[in-house]
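Researcher: Good morning. I'm working through a list of sequences from a screen, and I'd like to move beyond sequence-only analysis. For each chain I'm collecting a predicted structure so we can compare shapes side by side. This is the next one on the list. No need for commentary yet; just the structure.
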Amino acid sequence: MDKLTSMLVFTKVAKAGSFAAGARDMGLSRAMATKHIMHLENLLGMRLFNRTTRSLSLTEAGASYLERCTQILAEIAEMEDAVTHLQTEPRGTLKISTPPFIGAAHIAPAIAEFMLRYPDLSVEMIIQSTMADIVDEGIDVAILLGTLEDTSLVARKLASSPVILCGAPSYFEQYGKPEKPEDLLKHSCLVNWTVPPRDQWRFRGKDGEFRIKVAGRIRANSATPIRIAALQGLGLLMMPTYVVGLDIKKGRLVTALDEYMPSPMDVHAIYPHRKYLSAKVRVFLDFLQPWLQERLSLAEQGKV
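Model: Good morning. Structure tokens for this chain:
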């Protein structure tokens, strides 16, 4: 049996937690996947898995071997990319992960325009509120809002958008406008809890940035339900202008505490750390950066 294939089967089984699921990912039968694992165990002279009728877990040696296999397979993929991705035109499938609102409202139009330029390219777009595991999920580019915490990934800043506090005129008529951030403790604050720091809003004062813990009638993992609730006068929201710029221009929402607003929200593209970027990723990022900067500027002015 081919050792590299056996290593790949082993990583699939280990990450899936079962022979059946790992075999399915590889397009193999369960019996064939088992043979590949037994082949490795015979070569190494040690057990890689603890097996029972109900569970499958890595041995200590198996966990160490998985780490090395993952590294080796990634290096092989990088080497192949260096040879096979020398084409200047993007082709194949580009897999993109993006948060819901910016993905649907702003990234999707960019992708459509990009694809018109490159007919040999297909796109798989995944809209999700949580940060994707781009290595395990095979994602080429993930759009990230805010700061990057995983230093094993490469980040490219694409654009930024001012953050504003706002509410419906009907809300302010009933409850009044906050005059300082601490006043928010007496207001209904609508929270998108996927934006860190969770349940805390950042503000800028004379001594630098500080946080206020907020609470309100609605919490959600997406900007859309928060925006809808704010438009109905159910509370205040704190969002980048790419979400509410048009609402501000139309007078559906009104800003408050403008002098306390924190630094703009940065938008990054992240991708695995590889020396050789495929043409489809490199060309897409070169296209997306100026496109998104202009798009978010128009959104801030309420033009899109």
